[in-house]
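Exam revision sheet. Question 4 asks you to relate a sequence to its structure. Input first:
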Amino acid sequence: MNKHIALTFDDGPNTDTTPQVLEKLKKYGIPASFFLIGNNITPESAAVSKAAFEYGCEICNHSRSHPSMPELSAEEIRAEVEFTDGKIKEITGAAPRFFRPPYIAVNDVMIDNIDKTFIAGIGTEDWLDEVTAEMRAEKILAQAKNGSIILLHDAQGNSQTVAALDLIIPALLNDGYEFLTVTNLFAAEGVEPKRGIIYSNVLQTEMY
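Answer key, structure tokens:
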């Protein structure tokens, strides 16, 4: 049986780390999914995301300003998502299917007002400088299983995650994993994404 996994990146785009991540993906011939912060999308960084999209990556929504969204009103929540949807439409021609909540913080108001599938993922605190590339790789590899969504960050200057990709990707390829976008990961496992589940693995069935 084939094993499938998705590599995802939060907090871009930028013209520093995002292109480095894209080069690693091209090096190994695999796609990934990028969850963008709307306020980080400039003409220059949008060009990087467009290059990733044209290569075969998926572009998804990670809010406009990365707030703690459970503290926002329904109107503010919708505005955060709709702004970034608009920016992503300019890059890809379509609104994204998936949303990653900032801080993976969720409440019922968000579920009711965001018409997308919520994505979390298996992570490694890769926004902390003291977590080395080796530690990041070790933690991801220990958690990986069929259907997993890996959560990493292509934030400006996050060079240790770029370095960790040279450890994570070959190890998973050698272990028989195929890397897919989030959309294609659901499809490969024959799963229809549901509202109300916050997915770290596409085979999850537990509701929020």
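Marking note for examiners. Residues 40 and 143 are 30 Å apart (CA to CA).
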